[in-house]
Design a protein that fits this description.
Helix content is 35%, strand content 25%. The protein has 538 residues and is α/β, with parallel strands linked by helices. Among the domains are: 220-395 and 424-437, Rossmann fold (3-Layer(aba) Sandwich), CATH 3.40.50; 442-536, GMP Synthetase, Chain A, domain 3, CATH 3.30.300. Strand 10, helix 11 and strand 11 (270-271) form a beta-alpha-beta unit. The radius of gyration is 24 Å and the shape is globular.
């Protein structure tokens, strides 16, 4: 009977998967000659972005690939520019793909072209955070062995101060100093040549680095790991081929990079902007009739704050990830924009592990959904024992994106083939996952364990609070005590005692923050995560 039930469940899953793929529009016929030629890029480059871009050029040559502040490029134009740039970069690298190519760019065509060109060469490509200080940039470039750097002109002083001595190519220029080659200049002057690579490129994505120098995460990518992730996405995130997609997070971040790949693969026009401006994002959705928006939670709050926002009737999916999505924010966003919000949970190391649909978020606010297809998630205690529903422990995942360790050495904790995420969480009785906080962020106050996320979520729901973060600070009597940093809502004069009373009415006494400090803004990384250390130094 168990075997029969399993077969029936798999058959049902297969039916849903086929239906989901059909609804995306990806099952439209392809000319036989193009279908055959679409195999060549994979054989030549492997499972890398260059392959995705080349396949899109074959299948959707005249379809818009991306739109940025300089206009639109078709899939064929983007692939042709990437091919010419790859030839030019190979010459400047001395024909040696052993060195790594760094990309230090905002969201625009130059980032995409450099990524496609680098992965055509078989060179490892390192995605660099545009918020890096010169010291951080120098450390990461040295550790990763970057020998050729593609960067925007605005980052020239930071690169200079980082003492980078390799080859530099400018991706986006406003003034054009003439000191370095530019992507536009190289593409215009170079005839693309066939590139034969000896190995598939690796794309190295940096961890968030909120507590130190970011690490570079490596992955073992194959069709076997990509198909389950793609099927999970198709079944829970209704993105359609040809329907414009706005990517608001930085492309160097795992969320932005993932949806860059999704958009290229599906022939979906990518709407890019170098800086996040909430009013401009809503205008872009309305102007391009975009169906999908990708954003981090703080961006959703900024969108809600836009006065006189244009209607966005085309918007049918908003993908959120990168940091905690508080229940009050998800409910307010869906009340305003409709039940379009999807919450994805994952990590730079493991990719997306679970996906919460709008129905999940309505039924169980705060959830990050159910595990992705063919991915295992277990909640383990400190001794590695699996915990039942309702009990909190460290989240371990297996069967998804294969983490191959950090480029500087080291890896994540692995137990019985499952990789520890460093996050604490629990399942509810319906099998939905909830994140309770980071294992290293748990606050022990007077012998009691407190998860900041629980207190943050409660305070965030108070009408007088716009943003909040909760952290632990040293305390002579209790070891640690809770401190909350609060940004008041516009027009609010809420006081600390009122917020403490609000927490006390809903949670245990030991979870009430002893300190509440009001700030004008929370210091955040470019991906929306709060820099708690910056607050503690105040």
């Amino acid at each position: 009977m168990q075997v029969f039930d399993r077969v029936r469940a798999m058959a049902g899953l297969g039916t849903r998967a086929v239906r989901a793929v059909r609804e995306t529009g990806m099952l439209t016929p392809v000319r036989p000659d193009r279908a055959v030629r679409m195999l060549f890029p994979y054989v030549r480059y492997g499972p890398v972005p260059a392959t995705v871009g080349a396949m899109a050029a074959l299948r959707f040559p005249d379809r818009t690939a991306l739109v940025d502040e300089r206009g639109a490029l078709t899939c064929a134009e983007l692939d042709a520019r990437a091919a010419a740039l790859a030839t030019a970069l190979r010459e400047r690298a001395g024909g040696d793909a052993a060195g790594r190519i760094g990309i230090l760019c905002r969201n625009h065509r130059g980032f995409v072209e450099a990524l496609l060109a680098g992965t055509r060469l078989g060179a490892d490509v390192v995605l660099l955070n545009t918020d890096f200080s010169a010291t951080q940039l120098g450390q990461v470039i040295d550790r990763e062995g970057v020998t050729l750097l593609v960067h925007d002109e605005e980052f020239g002083p930071v690169v200079d101060d980082a003492s980078f001595a390799g080859t530099r190519v400018l991706a986006w220029t406003d003034e054009g100093s003439g000191k370095h080659d530019t992507i536009d200049g190289l593409v215009a002057a170079t005839a693309p040549e066939k590139v034969v690579t000896e190995r598939a490129s690796n794309v190295i994505v940096m961890t968030s680095g909120t507590t130190g120098t970011p690490k570079g995460a490596r992955h073992d990518i194959s069709v076997a790991t990509l198909i389950p992730a793609a099927l999970s996405h198709l079944m829970r995130v209704p993105v359609r081929t040809g329907a414009p997609l706005v990517i608001a997070p930085p492309l160097f971040h795992i969320l932005g990079y993932a949806y860059l790949s999704v958009g290229l693969g599906m022939g979906t026009p990518l709407i890019l902007s170098r800086r996040f401006d909430p009013a401009a994002v809503l205008d872009a959705i309305a102007d391009h009739e975009a169906e999908t928006l990708v954003a981090v939670p703080v961006m959703l709050q900024r969108l809600l704050d836009v006065p006189d926002a244009p209607p966005t009737p085309s918007l049918r999916t908003v993908v959120c990830g990168g940091s905690a999505l508080h229940p009050s924010l998800s409910e307010a966003f869906m009340d305003r924009f409709g039940d379009v919000l999807v919450n994805v949970y994952g990590a730079t190391e493991t990719g997306w592990a679970s996906i919460a649909t709008p129905r999940d978020l309505r039924d169980a606010p705060g959830t990050v959904g159910r595990p992705s297809f063919r991915l295992t998630i277990k909640i383990l205690d400190e001794d590695g024992r699996e915990l039942p529903s309702g009990e909190t422990g460290e989240i371990h995942t297996g069967g998804g994106l294969r983490f191959a360790g950090y480029t500087g050495g080291g890896g994540k904790d692995v137990r019985d083939g499952l990789t520890g995420t460093g996050d604490l969480g629990h399942f509810d009785a319906e099998g939905r996952l909830f994140i309770d906080g980071r294992a290293d962020d748990m606050i022990v106050s007077g012998g009691e364990n407190v998860f900041p996320g629980e207190v943050e979520g409660l305070l965030a729901g108070h009408p007088g609070v716009a943003e909040v973060t909760v952290t632990g600070v040293e305390d002579a009597d209790f070891g640690q005590r809770l401190a909350a940093y609060v940004v008041r809502a516009e027009g609010s004069d809420v006081a600390a005692d009122e917020l403490k009373a609000h927490v006390k009415r809903h949670l245990a006494r030991y979870k009430v923050p002893r300190d509440i400090e009001f700030v004008r803004a929370l210091p955040r990384t470019s991906t929306g995560k709060v820099r708690a250390k910056a607050l503690r130094k105040r």
